[in-house]
Amino acid sequence: MAKHPLEKWGSVMGGKKTRWIVVALWIMFAVVFALIFPQVNSVENYSGDEIPDTYTSIQAGNIMEEEFSSDSGIPLLITWYNESGLTEEDLTNIQGLYKQLADEPLDGQETIPPFHELPVTALMGSLSENGAALVTPVFFSTEKNSDVLKENLAIIQERTESQFGENPYDTNLEDEGLHARFSGPVGISIDATDLFKAADVQLMIATVIIILVILLVIYRSPILAIIPLVVVGIAYLVVSPLLGAMAENGLIDKDAQAVAIMIVLLFGAGTDYCLFLITRYRDILLTEDNKFTALASAVRESTGAIVMSGLTVVIGLATLALADYGAFQRFAVPFSFGVLITGFAVVTLLPAVLGILGRAAFWPFVPRTEEAEKANAEKKNKPYKPRKPNHRYMRAIGEFVTSKPWLVIIVAGAVLIGLAFASTNIKYNYDLISSFPEDMPSREGFKIIEENFTPGELAPVQLLIDSEGTDLDITEQLLRLPYVGVVKEMRTGETNNNIQLYEIDLDKNPYSNEAMDDVEQMKDDVKGILADSNLKDGQFWIGGETSSQLDTKVVQSGDENIIQPVMIIIIFIVLLAYLRALITSIQLMVTVVISFFSALGAGWLIIHYGLGHEAMASSIPLYSFVFIIALGNDYNIFMISDIWKNRKRGAAHKQAISNGIASTGAVITSAGLILAGTFLVLASLPIQLLVQFGIVTAVGVLLDTFVVRPLLVPALITVFGKWSYWPNKKLKE
């Protein structure tokens, strides 16, 4: 009888003559790629726009650069603070620093205000009302990368220390005396880059440790605990330089945040796929004496499910490429490519490693056939102890689910729907700085500005109007708007006198959701004002941080409306093609979608009431959706595959389900704990965005592992009976 193609694959990958070749090839690729390509972490991080240039905040920024060049470039805000009040000596030293910047400009320095040319009394007019704070900007070219900008900040620190005789940047804000902090877009960008650079190493170490500990606790085998880490580690050593080459050649934009999360994903999901094959191998070794024959059979029985599981994750993550929001889009290739290579390592490198180690991989609990176990006991002069039945706990769960499916559906459904309802209360924020630790320099600088100046001064709204040659000044009309605090004197463009700039301070924190609502209202109000001024079709643009946040909200919402349904449809088609069962494919998609909303609700309860976060980062829903839907279907595919195999072997409907739960329950539970644990590693980082993402995704994985996959899905299949297999006639019979 001819061997199954996957069995032949297993014989080649883990065969006596080929296993060493496969391992050598993987190691060779890892070494060669590392020598000729840069590691992805060493490539410069992308620092461009997140929003397409069709949105008003980007268009306003472009006009500002063309018509108001003195305000153009990326601003670094240096915040100066002395609780007792900034002295004349402090201001003189600040002027001295700006004279140095004027005489010896930094790399990429575009413009600076001429503070050094003003009388000290004029500079005092820029102090906060309490006289304790001053904000001075330095504008840098948008083309300079974060390495250059970071070096510039170090030079400014040196010049400041030389000018003042002390370093006001390295101080505790609670202490007396002068303090300085770098904030604004440049300061925030540098802090974000430093945070994620530090996160990479921390994540790698923490992820490896938590996987190692969980595997040791569950399987009590030191060799087995190391095998998945070695396989996934080698895969990562191949993935990293290949992504680095793509980024260096402009094929992708490197995103430090994406790389940090990719590390967690590869080690978590990769370890799961390894366990699917390892567990099947161990089970077959209990009845098959030849380790190579057992390995080939294990590859045959598990590879189909591993490939389909990996494929759903790759396709699901690749849908992020459809996004308009830059950060979403930059996640697509690293995630999908990383999982693709890791999945390939699991079905090639892992069989080779298992072929080399054989039964020794499971030491000290070596799986043997009954005859071999008796011979081993006799050799050691010990009585033979019959092996306990495999998977007895999960078998009991399977029998309970198939005997009381409606009870399971009602209870599990109530829990999931109740948690999902909590997601309707979530509040979202759209500013990056709220994700930073409170002692980060840029956040401390932000706090100084927030506490010492009126709210709107933090980030003025830039209203640009094309006056079309009319004698127009709408300052008074703008001041009458209920949300406007201050309108600075109108300015006209440097090259186009028709372009007018109105800088507006809102009467509230410009980073708040309420301020975003005000800018949305401003669009209608300005239309009305221009219509009253006989400019019915007058063009205008709204820029500034608040407008950018509003555009971010619109773009992210649009991405969710596209990516979520597309991902559901594509994964549904993959499931349908693999299972050839319409009703079950629908069930799986419905249950994982419910699981996502339940995870979002449960995550919000933990984040808001447990950790005290006032809001959730706006990007969390889409990130979590992509991961939970893709990874949730992983476990379902593995379990359903076993149920289908039992059915093909002639088992009755309920028996096939019960056996499927029994044979896959333990490994999926282990895999779920590992994957949830790796995502929870993100919660140890000092970045609120990653903390929230890690919690929501981990909760989603745990719900899939302990509620959806072992209880809800098999209960639904039980209730639908043989229709669960339709239109597959062979299974339905």
From TrEMBL:
InterPro entries associated with the record: MMPL_dom, Mycobact_MmpL, SSD
Keyword Transmembrane helix: yes
Membrane topology label: Multi-pass membrane protein
Domain SSD: 261-356, 589-718
Entry superkingdom: Bacteria
Keywords: Cell membrane, Membrane, Transmembrane, Transmembrane helix
Membrane-traversing stretches: 20-40, 201-219, 226-247, 259-281, 302-323, 335-358, 405-426, 562-581, 588-610, 622-644, 665-687, 693-720
Protein location: Cell membrane
PROSITE patterns to which the protein is assigned, alphabetical: SSD (PS50156)
Statement: the UniProt record of this protein carries the keyword tRNA-binding: no
Recorded family membership: Belongs to the resistance-nodulation-cell division (RND) (TC 2.A.6) family. MmpL subfamily.
Record's protein name: SSD domain-containing protein
